[in-house]
Amino acid sequence: MKTLSLRARLTLFYSTILTVILAVFGFLFYDALGLVLENKLTAELRDRVVYLAAFQRLQAGEARLVFNPNDRREAYLVQSAARYYQVFQLPSGVLLVQSQELEMMGARLSPEEVRALAGAQEFTDLQLETERLRFHNAVITGNNATSFLVRVGIPLTPADEAQRGFLRSLLFLMPLGVLVSALAGWQMARRALNPLAQLAAAARKIDIEKLQQRLPTRGTGDEVDEVAAAFNETLARLENSVGQMKQFTASISHELRTPLTTLRGEAEIALLQASSVEDYRHALTSQLEEFNKLSHMINQLLILASAEAGEIQWMERSVDLSGLVGSLVDQLEPVAAAKKITLETNTPPNINVRGDASWIERVILNLLDNAIKFSSEGGHVRVSVKAEDGDAVLRVADTGMGIQAEALPHIFERFYRAEPSRSKQIEGVGLGLSLVKWIVDRHRGRIQVESQVGKGSCFTVWLPLASASAGR
User: Which domains does the chain have, with CATH numbers?
Assistant: First the structure.
């Protein structure tokens, strides 16, 4: 079964709601109209009873209306009020007086019915073949203690006809109104959904080669603009991700091509020129170095992929950052000394952060390794740790070659090398800082770099203190 379009569903929904509202209010008004009309007729009936009471004469077993026939107005009013008029003697139930209208309608009552009406409620309804009447029943005692049942009636047919007319009009106009409203709703839904259709058409034109395009906004700030803005934000993120993927593909291709070319060249030279076991041993030793580089790069890629996929186990606990920095500085002291680089530390004790000690160790080790690697002989590397505003602040500064200003925004991207001209002399594939950034973000921290070419670089890492982290 084909699903209805949004436009059709909106129209159907509004039409259904309108139908229910019209039906409920229409029939409520129908009942209210009948009640109002009947109450009005009942009030008129009371007025007739009060008016006729001034002209009733009940004496000597007789009942009659006494008025001046020469007074046309009085005669007309009495005759009109007594159009439906009956008088019965009690308790015999004998009919004494009956208006001509009731006599022609055949409105006769048995003695039992008369006695029942004498003890019944004030108003009773009587359904005849051609009329529905409402009677006012009153027991009146004459001069000689004779009782009479006096009934004055009024037709309810006008009220019934008015109700039926209203019902006919309601049943005719309600479907017509619903139809007109449905047509108007269909057009309004079309106009309301037209911007969405335009957005859909614009979105269909965007493919992987046109991610720089954006959906148009009308500047109204309504829900459609919000959808377009949200979609544009998604496109921007997608464009950035695709750009990173392209850059990643190009970078990894370049990084893999260099060692593979080296391996192929050395193998070809060994096959063509090597004449002794020592020559082959030298070629294999050189190739092992390239294999180690490839293995290191692949391991870092696997770590990053596992980290982003959420497959790495995380063990958070209190970590002594001061002690960890001191231990790693001691381990790297021989490496720095081999390059005649001075390592300076300023690490007050008992500065603890909350996180995974092994991953925090990777951050410190990577930053120290980069500082030593990119510093020339006789340089200085300074490491400091301090507590500041609920964070532990780790700074690693060097007096190395520095980073160009245009390269600073990209140094945490994969395979990015700030000094491509020196990449052959300095080991590394440009993945270490990407991993550092991920680890710092995972620890709810932040990292910042300041650098000047020829003067050195300073990496600053903020990590929440163990006590502050527990309260967050």
Answer: 6-162 (3.30.450), 223-308 (1.10.287.130), 317-470 (3.30.565.10)
